Amino acid sequence: MLNPKAILSRHRGALIERAAGDWLCRQGLIMVERNVQIRGGELDLVMREGDTLVFVEVRHRSDSRFGSAAETITATKQRRLIKTARFYLHRNGLSCPCRFDVLAVTGNPPDLEYQWLKNAIEAN
Fold first, then answer.
1. What top-level branch of life does the organism fall under (predicted)?
2. Vertex 16 angle, CA 87 and 121, to 5°
3. 3-state class of 56 per DSSP?
4. 3-state helix vs strand vs coil in the chain, percent to 5
């Protein structure tokens, strides 16, 4: 059973991801899916920009006192994202150009700042 703090954290995370997706849509991307769970991994946002499928990792920090939200993506997290994206492509029978973006979000709703790092993760 989840404790109230964990429930609040999940709710806040869902709000931030929704705001992030809405912000990226205003920047011209098209939403494909949110919170995709596949084989031990999760894709926060799957979007399209032209012919390119964009896997977006959303990272949030209330403030940057202890570093930016983008700095929280470890090499292990990057490998997990790439593996999960490969499963996603295979499961959906897709063969298209892809990239991995990071959207670092700082602040608390409704006062959020966005730092969009396109092609932030290299997939070999």
1. Bacteria
2. 40
3. strand
4. 35, 40, 25
Taking all residues of the chain, what is their mean pLDDT, rounded to a whole number?
89
| Gap between the Cα atoms of 25 and 33, Å rounded | 12
pLDDT category at 2 given cuts 50, 70, 90 is: low
Q: Is the preceding omega at residue 4 within 30 degrees of 0, hence cis?
A: no
pLDDT in tens, 21-49: 999 999 999 999 999 999 889 999 999 99
Rounded to whole angstroms, the Cα distance separating 21 from 29 reads 9
Residue closest to 72 by CA, chosen among 87, 86, 57: 57
10 is written with which tokens? 């999940």
Separation between Cα atoms, residue 105 and residue 61, nearest integer Å: 6
For the entire predicted model, the pTM comes to: 0.90
Which domains are present in the chain? 4-121 (3.40.1350.10)
Distance CA 105, CA 53 (A): 21
Structure tokens at 50: 């032209």
Q: What are phi and psi of 2, to 5 degrees?
A: -80, 145
